[in-house]
Write a structure and sequence with these properties.
- It contains 15 helices and 14 strands.
- By secondary structure, it is an alpha/beta fold.
- It has 2 domains: 151 residues, Aspartate Aminotransferase, domain 1 (Alpha-Beta Complex); 241 residues, Type I PLP-dependent aspartate aminotransferase-like (Major domain) (Aspartate Aminotransferase, domain 2, 3-Layer(aba) Sandwich).
- The strands form 4 sheets. A 7-stranded mixed sheet has the order 2-8-7-6-5-3-4, with helices on both faces. A 3-stranded antiparallel sheet has the order 9-10-12. The chain has a two-stranded parallel ribbon with strand order 1-11.
- Helix 7 links the parallel strand 6 and strand 7.
- Helix 1 packs antiparallel against helix 9.
- It starts with 7 loop residues before the first strand and ends in a 7-residue tail after the last helix.
Length: 410
């Protein structure tokens, strides 16, 4: 193993480093430009004008009008506002029927679960082995009480890109609205809200090199919504509470940079991901790339290593300065196996040995080199203490072989 220990951050699906330009843009609104945008004086008018500029930038990146963009505290609030806000404003007698998928982010799954406990009917669509939802199955699941479909655009764990346009087409045949969580796809692939055809779409600042604590919800003009919070008339009465001016300004700057560099960034992230996967497959036996046959976001690679415990692997790589994830960062405190990978039909014992590598614009091929100098040795070390691994013959033992005590090399 060559080279000194350094730090390599490969967990960009969890959060991203803020662009220096975005940090610089927000600082004046934490210092001298601290006016409340609802105030009528000069300080307030200046803050309100800056929010208006930011709204135009975010709307332009989405292919929307500024009046269709509402600023929030992040992806979770955007999902809650999109789903609950629509469900409450458009409830039918007895609530209504909502369709989602089994691989959604907890911000969607828990919101739908809440509604299901409060009078709404819920259907969760399964996925195939590449974590893709079947649009035809969604069409078949729609009934006379269906009011909303919420399917994510790109999965946060494996990166699979859902056929949202086809799902929207099925929904529109029956007059059903569609929300999509685009937190992991926004600025990672080119699209507009009209390309997708959705009625609502969620984005989050800290996934696109803006600060934590800011996000946005797109709501198509004419869609009836109910607010979650009540108070003043902020965000055109849909989201009460004084706006996070500095965060909104930083989000707009990050979006401006991200949109301008999107094509170059996509090529860069794809090259890093593909090189990482190529080297893993060439140097480490008994691995699988999860979702490899699906269209994926460019910087996401979810890899299962047999006879390895993911948490042990994460800790050992962290000791080498390499930051990765065993799944969704929002669920990292749970000992339950990934709901995404288990829904794909991957056995639990293999799911527990899965890692997510997610690249950002700041990563380089040197980061891949550093990780691949260490990953095979760490895998080998952990496998050597697994009762399911034969270190002499470098193979996975069957349960029958383990029971018979045929493990070699110990």
């Amino acid at each position: 193993m060559n080279g000194k220990r350094r730090f390599v951050y490969l967990d960009n699906n969890a959060t991203t480093p803020i662009y220096p330009e975005a940090l610089e843009a927000m600082m004046p609104y934490l210092k001298e430009g601290y006016g409340n945008p609802s105030s009528a004086h000069t300080f307030g008018r200046a803050a309100k004008a800056k929010i208006g500029e930011a709204r135009e930038i975010v709307a332009d990146a989405l292919g929307a009008s500024p009046q269709e963009v509402y600023f929030t505290s992040g992806g979770t609030e955007s999902d809650n506002l999109g789903i609950k806000g629509y469900a409450w404003a458009n409830r039918k007698k007895g609530g209504g029927h909502i369709i989602t998928s089994v691989i959604e982010h907890p911000a969607v799954l828990e919101t739908c679960k809440f509604l299901s406990k409060n009078g709404y009917e819920l259907t969760k669509m399964g996925v195939d082995g590449d974590a893709l939802v079947d649009p035809a199955a969604v069409r078949d699941a729609i009934n006379e009480n269906t009011i909303l479909i919420s399917i994510m655009h790109a999965n946060n764990e494996v990166g699979s890109i859902q056929p949202i346009r086809e799902i929207v087409n099925a929904a529109k045949e029956k007059g059903v609205a569609v929300h999509t969580d685009a937190v992991q796809s926004f600025l990672k692939m080119p699209f507009t809200v009209d390309d997708l055809g959705v009625d609502m779409l969620s984005v989050s600042g800290h996934k696109v090199n803006a600060p934590k604590g800011v996000g946005a919800l797109y709501v198509r003009k004419g869609v009836k919504m109910a607010p979650l919070s009540h108070g003043g008339h902020h965000e055109r009465s849909l989201r009460a509470g004084t706006e996070n001016v500095s965060g909104i300004v930083a989000l707009a700057e990050a979006v401006r940079i991200g949109k301008a560099n999107m094509e170059k960034t996509i090529r860069h992230l794809t090259a890093l991901r593909d090189e990482m996967e190529k080297r893993v497959l060439a140097t480490i036996p008994f691995v699988r790339i999860n979702g490899k046959n699906a269209p994926r976001t460019p910087g996401t690679s979810n890899i299962s290593f047999e006879c390895v415990e993911g948490e042990a692997l994460l800790i050992n790589l962290d000791m080498h300065g390499i930051a990765i994830s065993t799944g969704s960062a929002c669920s990292s405190g749970s000992l339950e196996p990934s709901h995404v990978l288990t829904s794909m039909g991957i056995p639990h014992e293999i799911v527990h040995g899965s890692l997510r590598f997610s690249f950002g614009h700041q990563n380089t091929m040197d980061d891949v080199d550093y990780a691949m100098e260490r990953l095979p040795l760490v895998i080998e070390t952990i496998r050597d203490i697994s009762p399911l691994w034969d270190p002499k013959n470098r193979k996975v033992l069957s349960l029958e072989e383990v029971s018979a005590g045929t493990k070699m090399g110990k």
